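Hey all, sorry for the wall of text incoming. These are the two entities for the joint prediction.
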Amino acid sequence: MTGLSAQGLCFSYGRRQVLSDVSFDPLERGKLTVLIGPNAAGKSTLFRLIAGLLAPSAGKVHIADTDLARLSTRERLKKVCFMPQFFTANAALTVFDVMMMAHKQLKGWRVSEDDMFAVGQALEDAGIGHLAEAYVSELSGGQSQMVSVAQALIRKSDVYLFDEPTSALDLRHQLDVLTQIKTAVAGRQAVGMVALHDLNLAARYADNLILLGEGRILAQGSPEEVLRSPAISNTYGVEIEITTGPRENLLVHAYTS
Amino acid sequence: MSDLTQGPNAGALVQAYRLRSGRRLLLVLGAIACLAALVIFDIITGPANLSFGRALQVILDPSIATPKEDVIIWKLRLPVALMAVLVGAMLGVAGAEMQTILNNPLADPFTLGLSSAASFGAALAIVLGWSVVPGVGGLFVTMNAFVFALGTSCALFLFTRLRGVSPEAMILVGIAMLFTFNALLAFLQYGASEMQLAQLIFWQLGSLSRATWEKVAICAGVLGVILPWFLHQSWALTALRMGEDKAAALGVNVGLLRLTVLGGVSLLAAVAVSFVGAIAFVGLVGPHIARMIVGEDQRGFLPLSALCGALILSGTSIASKAITPGIVYPIGMITSLIGIPFFILLILGQRKRHWQ
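and here's what came out:
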């Protein structure tokens, strides 16, 4: 059983080349891959290409043997669940409403008992049950980000892409959300990809790390390999030292000189 | 998966949602009942001293009507009352979806210059006697208004094809249209005779007295096609309110949705405006009232926007006859006068802000 792979993806906005020849070996199902890289490295663009929201100028994305370009946008977005970067909405919709919307995936007017219980349970699992009847326009930044993650996880897909799911969260909720994502990906035997800025979080949760810089994949492999590679210091333009923490975890230290 | 604040269990959440859905359904049914009562009141308001019960009986069973009742209820007042309901609903729906696709609380069909275009078309007919579609006879004022309103949205369509479908661009082009047609209209008014000017202003202020059964049927037909289709798009339209990115990630073709909904909205507005004149306010306020009451889940928001629009215009129709017995005031004036105090009360009583 093989997962998600990309071959030779290229993309440019007008004349500005954003991604050039991005390929990665099949990402296994049940494993979490963390995508790291500086700002404007092309992380969001790569996610959009995988989700099919942008069309690559060259290259292909496969799930097992299926070429995703052959699927319609709707079918593709059923297989690939993409959570865009953090947002706030000002709509007069409750958290329960927007979860129901994500759960129904634009199908069918009627809401059944099963639908309602699925949403109720998902809210509980995400630890945001107490927000169910709050309007999304009243949520704090961190709360709406947690709703956003929950909206993605309520959908049943083969591939989950999260674009910076923890950027607005406090320490406790960062760990909670990443644990939820990791558990869901392992439990559903789906391919999980998360873009993160925090290298320590990346080291903690990644089964695989991919380092993206200036539109290319610069390193790929286990957290240990990638974090200890020279590429990482060069890409970020800082000195990076790795030590082992009190619980056998990797700790990343960055110095400007 | 814990949180510092322990939430209630899933069953309680479902219960709360079920209660809210039930309340929404009751509100819609209640609004329908109110609307039915208003229609009857609309019919008995005015000279002839009909009673509520008698009017209801005659509507339910036309065979019992005396010849006088037959003329007053079936020929004169029912088309007007139904026209108020239909046009109000059309404007309510048009405004609701305009606000949704443009992500702007001030959007209504008139923001995009549709009513100015219609007024200009009507002015061409009234002042210069021009008819853009030959051979429509006495309907040429209506026809001109319709053609210009629809032409404006076609221009908007073409523009979005050239420059991409972003809400900002659509609104800016709409405002450009609005000012263009207002200026052209001023030109015509400047050169018009006093008689023509009076006629033009009367047309612009809006009137239901031009209602006929044919117009009622046309409005019902247009609404009957477009409303179910919008309802069918409920989830996609709800998703759009969460932001373009979110909607696209759910599989909504955002550009196509905006364009097709714009098409539907234009048709609703063009038909409504060409039949009864430029009635602003209903398309703006109807959806706002609905949003304050049930929120923006389109499955409740859309029907209630239609009903709010219909209720406002039906109430207006009654008020326009009741203020001074014997005089029927133009409805364009009344909608704002009776609607705005109510609207301001609602805003003051509202603690949530959904538009920043």
